[in-house]
Write a structure and sequence with these properties.
The structure holds three protein chains of three kinds. In chain A, the strands form three sheets. A five-stranded antiparallel beta sheet of chain A has the order 2-1-5-4-3. A five-stranded mixed beta sheet of chain A has the order 7-9-10-12-11, with helices on one face. Chain A has three domains: 3-118, Beta-Lactamase; 141-217; 219-373, Histidine kinase-like ATPase, C-terminal domain (Heat Shock Protein 90, 2-Layer Sandwich). Chain A has helices spanning 3-14, 34-40, 44-47, 58-75, 120-178, 184-214, 229-242, 262-279, 310-315, 335-345, and strands at residues 19-23, 29-32, 77-86, 92-103, 109-118, 224-226, 248-253, 258-260, 286-292, 296-303, 349-354, 359-366. Chain A is of the alpha+beta class. Chain B starts with a helix and ends with a helix. Chain B has a domain at 3-121 and 198-261: Rossmann fold, CATH 3.40.50.1820. In chain B, strands 1-3-2-4-5-6-7 form a seven-stranded mixed beta sheet, sandwiched between helices. Chain B has eight helices and seven strands, in the order αβββαβαβααβαβαα. The chains are: A alpha+beta, B alpha/beta, C alpha/beta. At the A-B interface, helix 4, strand 3 and helix 5 of A face helix 4 of B.
């Protein structure tokens, strides 16, 4: 090669946009290029003849001896590994490196070529990614733990609140049935006990469902194939007892047992009728009906009164939406939201129409033939 | 559970006795590729991967079990039982030296002789004992391993499969490290470098040879000498080879040293 | 249609609930034997052989809860049907013996009657 040709190559080697070293078979640095000198702050004399790992931090040294060197011997090259050099000024120089062995005919090492690229930003970025991934994992684990605890708390709370309530209304029913309380006033008191308990029980149901739903639990169904009418009748009766001045007309035509979660459908019915009682005209009946037509179950609640505004329509089924708040209005605004969740869980929907003549909520769901789940 | 499958056990060669090779930290059984074949004419050569390395069954990795070297030692004893080994020769490199020591204490008939390459009973300095590393440095190592795991999930060895003429480019090269779950690798590093088996050495009842490299920063001469003086009746040979993996960088010297001892 | 009155054993530790369920079921045409806990229930079951169905709460104080009782009953007296109830978590099919029914609390009286009629084969 001509002088100028070899000079050209030398120039390319020395000033490559990467650090370039060669390491002899004895493991000592044989050649370094100018770029590497500049980056590390060492001159060639300080580098040549030394072992590579003297310029690495301890982690790098261990890694070199246990991973890089063996891999080079086993496969002849190793690419894209990270290394941290220590500069003459004592600073860290993170790099990405490629290494390749140049071998003789017997497979022995002639020399090893090592190319390094400065990777301060990239390594920092990667480290940030790794760190945030660990953080995420930890907080995910914490979240799960917290969620489990909350779930358990809700379950216990529900049980502990519901049981005494159930006992109270059981007691009231017993007194009612006994026939010993003849006085109308006393009977009315019993009715009020019942209706108050029902109201509280519904409230608890809705709150706990909502809390569970927000935690991602959703509404789980326990389906069974049983007659639905008795449940709907009882819901209507409870609400009649709670609002004795109001008229609730029922017209149920459910020909066959329905495969659904009867408790939940009862809750849906109660929420829809309750909503109609609250927002409907006080002197007009609330009309409730249900029918099956082989393919679908339909359940509707209709009332007369002020129509639902357009603005309200959009938010009707959102949690905590209460529409116009009347003086005596109680409740959290969860009833319709929970009802829609129950509808969805059954693969059904709730449709609303509202005009000055009538406001009507219609729940429809497909009838499934399979038996209890 | 199939122990031989779990640890990717390979048996080759023939002979009355068996020779078991155990790889060290960072590698898998392939690191013995230049040494083990030398003994196939006289011994049943047994190669295996620790769980978490090479072709071992990663699904059997149990964090609690492998949080100490005893977990790995138990596996080694199980492999010996599965193969019906008695008085075998054990050749253990790096952390496997201590794993072999523990296995031998658990099952004294398993090995008749042991060769420990680059052993260290404890890597972290402790008072007068100079293991070679500080706790801070080991913590840095663990972090550094993470930096590299980001790197070489992409790093690729040649995808040329099993070319027997150019074994260095073969399928074997699918970087055994790439097969390792990064979490397992990190855990194994932690177990290795925080281990302390100084008090176990005196319980060894089997003739033992220590192979010590010059200039091994992982297991210095001081550390090697400590092991020799603690294992009763043991011997030490100083290799000319440098670095921590003489089985790869100076396989001839290593094979001769082993042969001289068995 | 059977003319025998089905005999139901109710196991429920809450007094008012027990009394109420007894009345509701008797009104519906069942013969009802109450028990306050699993031990009482087992004593009754051992003394009589005409019980068709056991209706038990799950959370109960004492030596056994409702789930254990259900398994015990299925083990000793296989033909007896089982309905379990709870205000707590819902029992799944895995927890109860095969063919049992779970009725979540709060249940409406009508639902209880319908369920028991269903299980004892009364229209």
């Amino acid at each position: 090669m001509s002088e100028s040709g070899s000079d050209e190559y030398r120039y390319l080697f020395e000033n490559a946009p990467c650090g370039y070293l060669t390491i002899g078979p004895d493991g000592r640095i044989a050649k370094v290029n100018a770029t590497f000198e500049t980056w590390t702050g060492f001159v060639a004399d300080q580098l040549v003849g030394q072992r590579l790992h003297q310029f690495l931090n301890m982690a790098g040294r261990i890694y070199y001896e246990t991973h890089i060197a063996p891999l080079l011997r086993m496969q002849g090259s190793f690419n894209e590994f990270a290394l941290d050099f220590e500069t003459a000024a004592g600073e860290r120089l993170p790099v990405i490196a490629n290494a390749a062995e140049r071998r003789d005919a017997d497979g022995g090492v002639l020399f090893t070529a090592l190319v390094v690229i400065k990777a301060t930003d990239r390594r920092r970025y990667e480290r940030q990614l790794v760190d945030s991934r660990s953080e995420l994992r930890t907080s995910l684990a914490n979240e799960r733990e917290t969620a489990e605890l909350r779930e358990q708390f809700i379950a216990v709370l529900g049980h502990d609140l519901r049981n005494p309530l159930a006992a109270i209304s059981a007691g009231a029913r017993i007194l009612q049935r006994s026939g010993h309380l003849q006085n109308e006033r006393e009977l009315r008191v019993l009715n009020m006990i019942n209706s108050t308990v029902t109201r509280m029980s519904d409230l608890i149901d809705n709150i706990l469902d909502f809390a569970r739903g927000r935690l991602g639990g959703g509404i789980t169904l326990h389906r069974a194939l049983r007659p639905l009418e008795p449940v709907l009748e009882q819901v209507a009766d409870e609400l009649r007892t709670a609002s004795p001045q109001r008229v609730i007309e029922t017209h149920f035509e459910i020909a066959e047992p329905v495969n659904c979660d009867h408790t939940r459908i009862g809750q849906l019915a109660s929420n829809l009728i309750g909503n109609a009682l609250t927002h409907g005209a006080r002197d007009m009946p609330v009309r409730v009906g249900a029918k099956t037509n082989g393919k679908e179950l339909e359940f509707w609640v209709a009332n007369t009164g002020e129509p639902i505004s357009e603005a309200a329509m959009e938010k009707l089924f959102e949690p905590f939406f209460r529409g116009d708040v009347r003086a005596s209005r109680q409740g959290l605004g969860l009833g319709l939201h929970i009802a829609s969740q129950i509808a969805q869980a059954h693969g059904g929907r709730i449709d609303v129409t509202s005009s000055p003549q009538e406001t009507r909520f219609v729940f429809s769901m497909p009838l499934v033939q399979t038996g209890p789940s | 559970m199939n122990v031989l499958a779990r640890n990717n056990v390979h048996v080759s060669g023939r002979g009355d006795g068996a020779m078991v090779f155990a790889h060290g930290f960072g590698c898998d059984q392939k690191t013995w590729r230049f040494v083990a074949p030398e003994f196939e004419r006289e011994f049943k050569v047994v190669l295996f991967d620790h769980v978490g390395a090479g072709g071992s069954d990663l699904s059997t990795y149990d964090k609690a079990k492998y949080s100490t070297l005893h977990g790995y030692a138990d596996d080694l004893v199980e492999i010996g039982e599965a193969l019906g080994l008695k008085n075998a020769v054990f050749v253990g490199h790096s952390v496997s030296a201590m794993i072999g020591v523990l296995a031998s204490i658990k099952a004294p008939e398993l090995f008749g002789r042991m060769v420990l390459g680059g052993p260290s009973a404890r890597y972290i300095d402790d008072g007068d004992y100079k293991g070679g590393f500080s706790e801070k440095q080991i913590a840095e190592l663990l972090e550094f391993l993470e930096d590299n795991h980001m790197g070489w999930s992409a790093a690729m060895a040649p995808s040329i499969m099993g070319n027997p003429d150019r074994p260095e480019l073969g399928e074997e090269l699918t970087n055994s490290f790439c097969r390792t779950d990064p979490e397992i690798a990190k855990a194994f590093a932690r177990v290795t470098f925080t281990s302390d088996n100084r008090s176990d050495l005196s319980k060894v009842t089997v003739p033992t040879l220590i192979l010590q490299c010059s200039e091994d920063i992982i297991a210095s001469q001081e550390v090697g000498k400590f092991v020799r003086s603690s294992i009763p009746g043991s011997e030490i040979v100083f290799l000319k080879a440098t670095g921590h993996c003489p089985n790869l960088s100076a396989p001839v010297e290593v094979a001769s040293a082993i042969r001289a001892y068995v | 249609m059977s003319s025998i009155k089905p005999v139901i054993l109710i196991v429920e530790d809450e007094l008012l609930l027990r009394m109420d369920s007894v009345e509701v079921l008797e009104d519906a045409g069942f013969e009802v034997i109450p028990a306050a806990n699993a031990d009482e229930a087992i004593a009754i079951l051992s003394a009589r052989s005409d019980i068709h169905l056991v209706f038990t709460d799950i959370q109960m104080p004492g030596s056994m809860d409702g789930l254990k009782l259900a398994r015990f009953v299925r083990d000793r007296w296989p033909p007896i049907k089982i309905v379990a109830t709870s205000g707590h978590a819902r029992a799944t099919d895995k927890d109860l013996p095969a063919g049992s029914v779970f009725l979540p609390k709060p249940y409406r009286g009508a639902e209880l009657v319908a369920t028991l009629r269903d299980m004892t084969g009364i229209a």
